[in-house]
Amino acid sequence: MSFDWEEFFKKQIEECRELGKQAVNTEDRAFWQQAAGRWEEQHRRAQQAQQRNRQHAHRRKALS
Question: Where do runs of H (alpha helix) occur along 1-64?
Fold first, then answer.
C-alpha cells in the first residue's frame, strides 16, 4: 500500500482551516490561515513535480 500524498495535503489544509475557524483571537486565526496557505503551496508544488515526472517518464518511454 502506498502513501496517498494527495489525501495527506488535503487533510493538512482542512485541519488548518478548521483550527482557524475555531481560533478565538485574530493572531491565532491569521496563523492558521497562513499555515493552510503554506500547505496549499506545498500541495501545488507536489502536483507540479508529479506532472513533470510523468512527462519525463513518458518521454523516456517514447525514446526507448
Answer: 5-22, 26-63
pLDDT tens digits for 3-54?
898 999 999 999 999 999 999 999 999 999 999 999 999 999 999 998 988 8
Cα(38)–Cα(17) distance, integer angstroms: 12
Distances (CA, A) of 9 to 19, 59, 61: 15, 28, 30
**Distance (Å, rounded) from C-alpha 64 to C-alpha 61?**
5
Amino acid of residue 24: V
CA dihedral defined by 46, 50, 55, 58, rounded to 10 degrees?
170
> Rounded to two decimals, what is the model's pTM?
0.80
